[in-house]
Amino acid sequence: MSEFQGRRRSILKGSAGAAAVASIGAGGVLFSPFARSQTLKFTPEKGAKLRVLRWSRFVQGDIDAYMANVKKFTEATGVEVRVDNEGWEDVRPKAAVAANTGAGPDIILSTNDDANLYPEKLLDVTDLAEYLGKKYGGWYPAVQQYLRPDGKRWLGLGLGASGSMIVYRESMVKAAGFDTFPKDTAGFLKLHQALKEKGTPGGYALGNATGDSLWTNWLIWSHGGKLVDKTNKVVIDSPETIKALEYAKELYANFIPGTLSWLDPNNNKAFLDGQISVTNNGISIYYAAKNSPDPKIKEMAADINHASFPIGPAGVPTESHLFFNQMVMKYTKFPNAAKEFLRFMMEREQFDAWLIGAGGYIGQPLAAYESCPIWTSDPKHTPYRDCVKNMRPSGYEGKLGYASAGAGADFIVANMVAEAASGSRSPKEAAERAQKRAERYYKV
């Protein structure tokens, strides 16, 4: 069975969970077996008020469209919703504090597999997840792996992902002797060597960047390495990883200086300042250029294009993207209002408008939204459309849970690549250190 067929089968299987149930469900939810595939509504508690904590926008249209939908929800239900925005690096610790203290936001929009750090603190949203999956073509496999790791209970809802795609200047790539962006790792290295010679280097985050350091997962996976195997045994110290780290050292030699300390905003700034010609990022660089009041930056938009990461010795795509989840905290006093809010925000009337407002910055978690007009209104948006469908979860190849979430939050892979690439440790030493760090999370 091909990888595509496997994904398709998994999507269909995940969608089939919305089987016929009693006409009155738990929590005052009203539905029938037929109506469930059409609509599902939760009756908010009397006097309900909600507080939502979410990551700050990198694209202004994202928050504008999101808040427009929030206003629509309040107008429709009378439920007041307060939305607080924090940086990615700040949402994770605040979410952990809320989970541990049992107080704070009712709903938290966080990243990657944070839900697996405190699954017992989260409200079961299986009924809502199954309804949405059946109505909108199914959740992609990685979404299910992140939020339904036991194959039964849904810990939260997928929101989508910010695609970590290649962003490059077409004119500079052509000046370096490449008519098209390389599709394999050998060509990828040659391109960066040529770009450096031309004085137009590339640059990728090697600091503890929540989103932009995910390219290091691609690097390891593309060479056949992985943090853990299917049994959750730590196997990062492997010949495949060593080869990947040796490649990383060659690649890093062509980067602009300073990438070891880069966090998520740094490569955006370097690219728009004209310091680098290629990086990995969401669509926010292109979006910022198109909408810039600076004529020089606006002109740059025509020269920007996007591509998938190249395929390495592993022989298959190995994409890693920043996944966004939506978690309802179990301590909420208004569980029905919280579920109704998420249902409302995920329905087509609101979700399509949000995807369009965000300008392609977020790729959808449900298959039906592949038809959203945002993906074809500009050909440069299209590479981001399938990022959630094609991505591997950050805990690949093991089962997600406390260990994968903790290891991801500790930037083990990113730190290993940074150490080897910069020469502060040999590839073998970096892999051995990563092995020991990971084993503290994946205890036998």
From TrEMBL:
Transmembrane region(s): 12-35
One Pfam family linked to the record: SBP_bac_8
Record key words, sorted: Membrane, Signal, Transmembrane, Transmembrane helix, Transport
GO CC annotations on file: periplasmic space
Keyword Transcription annotated: no
Location of the protein in the cell: Periplasm
The protein's name: Carbohydrate ABC transporter substrate-binding protein (CUT1 family)
Organism: Pseudorhodoferax soli
